[in-house]
Amino acid sequence: VVLLCAITKSQSNMEISELKEEFARNREAIISRWMDFLRIPSISAQPAHDKDCLNAANWLDSYLSSMGFAVELLGGTNRPVVFAQRMIPNRPTVLFYGHYDVQPEDPVELWDSPPFEPQIRGDRLYARGANDDKGHVMFVLAALEALIKNNQLNYSVKILIEGEEETGGKVIAAGLASWRDKVKADSVLVCDTMWVAPQLPTIVLGLKGIVACTVELSGLTKDLHSGLAGGLVKNPATELARLVATLHRPSGEIAIQGYYDEVVPIPADAREVMRNTPIDLRVVEQAVGVSLTGGEADKFTPLERLGFRPTVEVNGINSGYSGPGTKTIVPSKALLKLSCRLVPNQNPEKCMKLLQDHLQKYAPPEFKIEFSDIEIAGAAFSLSPSQPAISRASKTLAEVTGKPVIHSWQGGSIPIVPQLQQVSGGVPILAGFGLEQDNLHAPNESFSLTQFEYGFLFVGRLLST
Amino acid sequence: VVLLCAITKSQSNMEISELKEEFARNREAIISRWMDFLRIPSISAQPAHDKDCLNAANWLDSYLSSMGFAVELLGGTNRPVVFAQRMIPNRPTVLFYGHYDVQPEDPVELWDSPPFEPQIRGDRLYARGANDDKGHVMFVLAALEALIKNNQLNYSVKILIEGEEETGGKVIAAGLASWRDKVKADSVLVCDTMWVAPQLPTIVLGLKGIVACTVELSGLTKDLHSGLAGGLVKNPATELARLVATLHRPSGEIAIQGYYDEVVPIPADAREVMRNTPIDLRVVEQAVGVSLTGGEADKFTPLERLGFRPTVEVNGINSGYSGPGTKTIVPSKALLKLSCRLVPNQNPEKCMKLLQDHLQKYAPPEFKIEFSDIEIAGAAFSLSPSQPAISRASKTLAEVTGKPVIHSWQGGSIPIVPQLQQVSGGVPILAGFGLEQDNLHAPNESFSLTQFEYGFLFVGRLLST
Predict the structure, then answer these.
(1) Span A162-181, average pLDDT
(2) A278-303: per-residue pLDDT in tens?
(3) Chains A, B: CB contacts under 8 A, how many?
(4) pLDDT at A12
(5) How far is A331 from chain B (nearest CA, A)?
(6) At what angle do helices A134-149 and A449-464 cross, to 10 degrees?
(7) Helix, coil or strand: residue B92
(8) Least packed by Cβ within 10 Å: which of A183, A196, A287, B244?
């Protein structure tokens, strides 16, 4: 595998100043095209917008074709995956991954301007998808256009933009293995992440895997009168709570047998990086409202837990009556929604089985326990900060922003990334430019124009040197 | 206190056969009057029906006045308490308690005939309130009317019919102490309970007390992303479940310190009665859907737990997301609704304090714990089956039904009963004629005409001998 860092300086390349001039010259056209893309309400969660999703795919097709890419729509005609390539013989290949679908706009009454009529206010462009992910896609394509126009694109480029990221990405997950030859690459550029703080440009070196399920405990014929049945029968709500209480030890450790068997020690270099990461935990505590005493707080620092320790979280629990006043019932059943974040080397299928076995074992035999909505979304991945492709991307990011770059192992999950890594063979470079205040998935989503330009400069510099 | 059983046989009295003839002769008029009462939609939960509640009170006023009762409306003009008396010098006093308000009729579309247009089908009269409690009130008043007409009423009779039983009975609870002289009685007849099975006429000898509250655990600023916050902060849903799990030991015993301190041993005679009660527990298990392994199942029989062991029940628990699919959040807060059934000698205020202290002690210090909807509805009461007033009522019930009578200590609560016992000084006689299939509080409420006649005969016989 030829790594990005192995490129010699014999190539021509665009200096940051030249890229800045190029951006300034074309600013209006770039933003105007970005707005055109945002005007397409490509909401993948709503079948009424299937046509819009196809329109967004076709829009990308025509833009990419105009730049000289060979474009194919893969995976059927409904929310197809846009695949494009522009190969240069004997040059390493960068595979860019993004998505053209967006979240629904609800609640639409909380938007200050219509979600699909982009508007600039101050340094921000407001629209559904302004950041996630159309903003990221657009600075990548704008940078490619600039490099191609100036004959400075020094890499073979493949592009994979899916239309179902917000709804589980089933089409790309199902198709990827059969597109193995198409997507072969030396590195995978993913621009769909955030900086850990406004002044801290971030490259994400790890994400967790995720599995989830719904658990229902039932057996009573109906809600029973708490006077007539209380003390006679076990209470499904009480028993479900007792079951939840078996999942963790008082220390915060997960109590599921075998759950840590495959968890590997935190790599020394990652530990070192995290120790030196300038994140003010008091700011985090203020943002979340409580001190950071969750998980295995006695044994690991917050960043270590976030990046390298598995979790089992209750996402929801519901049983009986929760309205005002008193309703004296023994609820007939109780519902639990769980999700688990997994760390490198944990097998998602195995973890789901261990979880289910544990719940089955500790559930009271009087009740029926049923599992549904079982999701095995994907495994974790983790990279070393010393990998050459990471070093080079980090150096580039520091150059264009003028700031020190943070390496971050995060607790979230982008299940497609480890799959892309495995199928393409390329090193994932996760360099997004989002900020906390961008309101992803919420009303008044926006993207900073400054961050957008950083993204343009980063991609331009990365692919021209 | 002159007990009912102390009445000598020197009085004239109506034989059961005479009462049966009297009922047959007046059947049409009795049912017609009962239907008139049922046509008044006296729903206490809905302010739109305040006028109807007052109409029901006035209707009772005029009916009772026509029988020669001195009637007063107590506790204000909105859903007043109807108080009536007809005293006979030197005769013991029976205080009858009932209520004229009814439950809302929703969901009205599930009724086979309109809820306030009474209809007889087969042996049943269908209407909202047919049983609860207008049916019971009407056989009591019809029996009184028959005795008075035949000059066979041998007791001083006081009547207390409230209009807020279905909404907490605050007016009567607040006024009762100040009506102490008015309500003084030797026994309190309450007809608002059920037979334990269709062939088992029942006198209820005990009911539990009840306290309830809502608990909220909060502290996170909002629902957090389970990847970004999971393992960093404690999860309110998980912690609430762990808190619920501290309330009971694995044996089902309540684990709140001091909770059993005032609980007295089950009286030997009650134990004996329960041992011989011909209730088929397999039928109960079939009805509830599970085996009767709740509460302190290792130490006490189901009937013992039902009548004499306190409970702490989860009526509802709610946190986070419980819809379809997956929502990967750490919920910002978690809600719990608890109610406790208390047994004789437990002090409701003290039990509520012990519960709150326990929850406060075991709640994680990172979160705020708040209590609301605190209800201290009332204490338990329990009578001995050998009390003369109970013996006599039981004998009368056996005579009129031709069946052996069950003595039952139940897990439900009628908080006004121990208050009436305390203020009036009278022994409570809980002899209702409801059956499981009467659909109390549900669509198609009905009352068996056979049971109604049993009620008429029972009251007629009880108050004429």
Answers:
(1) 92
(2) 888 999 999 999 999 999 999 999 99
(3) 278
(4) 57
(5) 6
(6) 40
(7) coil
(8) A287
DSSP state of B97: E
Task: Read off the pLDDT band of B331 (50, 70, 90).
Answer: very high
Residues in chain A: 465
Mean pLDDT of A412-431: 95
Across the interface, whether the CB atoms of A233 and B294 are under 8 A apart is answered yes
Q: What does the pLDDT look like over B281-310, one tens digit per residue?
A: 999 999 999 999 999 999 999 999 999 999
| C-beta of residue B79 within 8 angstroms of C-beta of residue B102 | no
Q: Look at the block and give the residue holding tokens 């229902």.
A: A216
Provide the strand spans (E) within B78-186: 81-86, 93-99, 119-121, 124-126, 156-162
Nearest to A305 among B231, B234, B284 (CB): B231
A322: which chain B residues are within 8 Å (Cβ-Cβ)? Answer: 316-318, 335, 337
- Chain B residues closer than 8 Å to A409 by CB: none
- Residue among B292, B316, B324 minimizing CB distance to A232: B292
Query: Tokens 């929801």 — which residue?
Result: A316
Is B322 within 8 Å of A341 when comparing Cβ atoms? no
- Closest residue in A to B302 (Cα) is A232
A227-275 residue pLDDT tens = 989 999 999 999 999 999 999 999 999 999 999 999 999 999 999 999 9
Query: What is the rounded distance in angstroms from the CA atom of residue B220 to the CA atom of residue B409?
Result: 45
Minimum distance, in Å, between the CA of residue A117 and any CA atom of chain B: 28
Q: Angle at the Cα of A430 (from A429 to A434), degrees rounded to 5?
A: 150
Residues A378 and A211: beta-carbon distance below 8 Å = no
pLDDT score, position A10? 40
Given a contact cutoff of 8 angstroms between Cβ atoms, the answer to whether B364 and B236 are in contact is: no
CB nearest to B290's CB, from A219, A248, A311 = A219
Name the residue among A242, A309, A373 with its Cβ closest to that of B324.
A373
For residue B12, pLDDT over 70 is answered with no
- B317, A314: Cβ pair inside 8 Å? no
The whole-angstrom distance between B444's CA and the closest CA on chain A is: 18
Contact B315, B337 (CB under 8 A): yes
Cα A417 to Cα A268: distance, rounded to the nearest angstrom: 24
- DSSP for A27-94 reads HHHHHHHHHHHHTS--BTT-GGGHHHHHHHHHHHHHHHHHTT-EEEEES-SSSPEEEEEE--TTS-EE
Q: Which residues of B322-353 are buried (b: 16+ CB within 10 A; e: fewer)?
A: beeebbbbbbbbbbbbbbbbbbbebbbeebbe
- Kindly tell me the sign of the dihedral angle through the C-alpha atoms of A125, A130, A136, A140: negative
Determine contact, residues A193/A108, Cβ cutoff 8 Å.
no
Report the gap between the CA of B300 and the closest CA in chain A (Å).
Answer: 10
- Return d(Cα B218, Cα B203) in angstroms, integer: 46
pLDDT digits 0-9 by tens, A71-114: 999 998 889 999 999 999 999 999 999 999 999 998 889 999 99
d(CA A339, CA A316): 10
Closest alpha carbon to B281 in B270, B292, B294, B266: B292
Q: How far is CA B414 from CA A117, A407, B166, B208, in A?
A: 62, 65, 11, 8
B318 has pLDDT over 60: yes
Please say if the pLDDT value at position B9 is more than 50. Answer: no
